[in-house]
Amino acid sequence: MNEDTGRQLHGWDATTYRADVGSPTMRSPVIGLLLLEVAPDWDALVARLERVSRTVPMLRERVLRGPFGLANPRLGVDPSFDLDFHLRRYRLPQPATWSDVLAEARRISLAQLDPDRPLWRATVLEGLPDGRAAFILKLHHALADGQATVQLGAQIFDFAPDATAPTDLPEPPAAVQPGMLDVLTADVRDTLERAAGRVGGVVRAAPGTAWRAVRDPRGAVGDGVGLARSLARFTLPAGGRSLSPLLRQRGTTYRFATIALPFRDLRTAAKDAGFTVNDAFLSAVAGGMRRYHERHDAPVGELRFNLPISLRTEGAEAANAVTIARFPFGIAEPDPVTRMAAAHEVVDAWRAEPALGLADDIASLGWFVPVGMLAAAAQASDITTSNVPGVPVPTYLAGARILRMYPLVATIGAAINVTMLTYDGGAYVGVSADDSAVAEIAELVEDLRAGFAEVVGKDLPPDDPVPGS
Predict the structure, then answer these.
(1) What is the 3-state secondary structure (H, E, C) of 376-444?
(2) Between the CA atoms of 163, 166, 167 and 173, what dihedral angle is there, to the nearest 10 degrees?
(3) Quick one: which H or E segment has residue 50?
(4) In this structure, are residues 74 and 186 in contact, taking their beta carbons and an 8 Å threshold?
(5) Which of 158-167, 178-187, 299-308 has the highest mean pLDDT?
């Protein structure tokens, strides 16, 4: 990164930003919705976010534009950064309910972020029953994936209610204000350096590859064919349309809903069956979608699932570190353990793909694909699922205990997004559904809850995040 011209986005980050700007169906905000026991101390919250904005530069970075808009976008520290612009708080109309919180989260999610300012917002909602409050953190998906958002939250949260923020503030990151010609020059330089790095990697690997070809030509050819096929699985569009007869329409708006269950129930069900929590999660979602289609007299054998696969390495900074696996997955199977086995097999197969190490380079190709084609390919998927490990112990936000954490992610072309975040003994599921694809989100949630009940072997407890509302 050149400090005078910011940093260039590449791979998934760049393609996500371009698709978001180019198509309203591809908007990609990530919402972290926190239910708080009480309203946070406002001055302490402002002070904490001021500090974090100085230690996490992306919270002060805006988009830098070149003269032609042909290269990947750049981000640089905003010389006019104003924390007050990004923070707001207000009291909900009384009597306030959890539905009011979700409706507000929806409005915040659907509103476009100002590209001339850093791509995030934070909102405190007060006035919930029993003095409770909500905190909504909105980030552009080009800045961070689900795990990176959790990492960012860990810098905002405390592990004790009376924790005090350090009084010595670090210096803010240096602002940049390059001209268009400077941005163009930096884009060309960074693109050439990245290309040279890829070529250098090929050159360094060439002697070993050549020796393999001499020693085992048949195996070398087989490896090359396998890599080519793997690349095709990552890059070729799904073709056609959604596999579901119910989920084929797409619009520009979506609604949110939430589900909660004890994490130990899901973990125990997975362990007893010999599988992972992610396998159990996928089985639960598949079971719920089977019920949803049966409810509407439209049974279907498979749906096309999107599943983010983490490429994150230990110690990696907050950023996107994922690739997207897209595959047809059977939902007609009534046995939850059999569905777990199927989920385990398909995810393991994707994690073993030879092209996985090239995922970021593959995503960079999206910059050369028209946004309309990207949107059409995304809309061929029925559902996106994601399972994000969170903080396992209680945390606090400016003195207020965090009772629940829900991830609410835009549908980004698919009909439905179901994302689960674990926190302090709970599994908190955020559901978003395209308004044109799902007429009644309450029905969908009821069926998804039944899918989780199938997996854990008992009914889920009543879910009322704010009793008395």
Answers:
(1) HHHHCCCEEEEEECCCCCCCEECCEEEEEEEEEECCCCCCEEEEEEEECCEEEEEEEEECCCCCCHHHH
(2) -140
(3) helix 42-55
(4) yes
(5) 299-308
Strand partners, 417: 384, 432
Encode pLDDT of 292-334 as tens digits.
999 999 999 999 999 887 664 554 444 555 677 888 999 999 9
- Rounded to 10 degrees, what is the CA torsion of 101, 103, 105, 108? -140
Note if the bond before 95 is cis, omega within 30 degrees.
yes
Average the pLDDT over 108-112 and give the result: 94
How many CA atoms lie less than 13 Å away from 97 in the CB half-sphere?
6
Options 141, 293, 296, 344, the catalytic residue:
141
**How far apart are the C-alpha atoms of 406 and 403, rounded to whole Å?**
10
With bands split at pLDDT 50, 70 and 90, how would you rate the model's confidence at 349?
confident
Do the domain assignments include residue 190?
Answer: no
Residues 328, 291: Cα–Cα separation, whole Å: 17
Active site residue 293: no
Sheet of 396-397, strands arranged across: 87-91, 120-126, 133-140, 29-36, 400-409, 396-397
317 and 434 inside one domain: yes
Give me the number of domains the chain comprises.
2
Measured CA to CA, the distance from residue 399 to residue 211 in angstroms comes to 62
Structure tokens at 262: 């004890």
Q: Look over the chain and give the mean of its residue pLDDT values, rounded to a whole number.
A: 83
Q: What is the CATH number of the domain that holds 329?
A: 3.30.559.30
Structure tokens at 128: 């919930």
Q: Phi and psi dihedrals of 358, rounded to 5?
A: -100, 10
d(CA 454, CA 448): 10
CA–CA separation, 304 and 413 (whole Å): 12
Is 35 in the same domain as 152? yes
Of the candidates 141, 187, 193, 143, the residue with the CA atom closest to the CA atom of residue 411: 141
Distance CA 427, CA 416 (A): 19
Of 152, 168, 184, the residue at which a domain comes to its end is 168
> What is the C-alpha end-to-end distance of the chain, expressed in Å?
50
Whether residue 35 is found in the same domain as residue 134: yes
> Contact 283/343 with Cβ under 8 angstroms?
yes
**Among the listed residues 68, 75, 71, the one whose alpha carbon sits nearest the alpha carbon of residue 368:** 71
Domain that holds residue 298: 254-390+414-456
